[in-house]
Design brief:
With 215 residues, the protein is of the alpha/beta class. It is built from nine helices and eight strands. Strand 5 and strand 6 form a beta hairpin.
Length: 215
């Protein structure tokens, strides 16, 4: 199965992508991982992507698409994959159509207000970079459970920054929903529910209920 997850910031898209990949034994392909891997290997495309990221700029569509094309053609993608973070706009979606056909697109629906609430509560450890989201449930307030480092709020997780990121999502990424609806492969998922319930709902669309494993 070739699967795409779409969702605004705070929808839990990354978490669900990992769960689907683990459960169905297919690679979870995120643009962040692709950039880091290509940069570490010092490939031509990786170096070009790194140059843009160091300046704080978005990596151009043609570079991202080329990196994704290389990744989905690797042997471990033979039985399928889960895409997270690509395509992020219509131009990338059309480029992806020339590389491969998607089987399912899951859209995690969440209101902007709830997304802002979730993300503004998120904290990260200064030492080990662990992230604690939603209601911060560390054993000691403000202290990381893993390394005992101090937690802080990233600039990207402050309300003003979140609203800016959501605005970009609405303008560039949200049109993908209608694009894939026309292909008849979209499933809308309520992201305002527990992680395990979202995972179960996605699995019901992927496999017959009688064949599902216990979550």
């Amino acid at each position: 199965m070739r699967i795409l997850l779409i969702g605004r910031q705070g929808s839990g898209k990354g978490t669900q992508a990992k769960l689907v990949a683990e459960r169905h034994k297919i690679p979870n392909i995120s643009t962040g991982d692709i950039f880091r891997d290509a940069s570490a290997l010092r490939t031509d495309l990786g170096m070009k992507a790194e140059a843009y990221m160091k300046k704080g700029h978005l990596v151009p569509d043609e570079i991202v698409t080329s990196l994704v094309k290389e990744r989905v053609r690797q042997k471990d993608c033979r039985d399928g994959f889960v895409l997270d973070g690509f395509p992020r706009n219509i131009s990338q979606a059309k480029a992806l159509d020339k590389i491969t056909n998607l089987d399912k697109v899951f859209v995690l629906k969440l209101s902007d207000d709830l997304a802002i609430k979730r993300l503004s509560q998120r904290r990260q450890c200064k030492k080990c970079k662990s992230v604690y989201g939603g209601i911060i449930a560390t054993r000691k307030k403000g202290i990381c459970d893993k390394c005992h480092g101090k937690l802080y709020q990233r600039e990207d997780d402050k309300p003003a920054a979140i609203r800016k990121r959501l605005s970009i999502y609405h303008k560039e990424t949200e049109p993908l929903v209608d694009y894939y609806k026309k292909k008849g492969i979209v499933h809308l998922i309520n992201a305002n529910q527990p992680v395990e319930k979202i995972a179960a709902e996605i699995s019901r669309h992927l496999y017959h209920e009688a064949d599902m494993l216990e979550l």
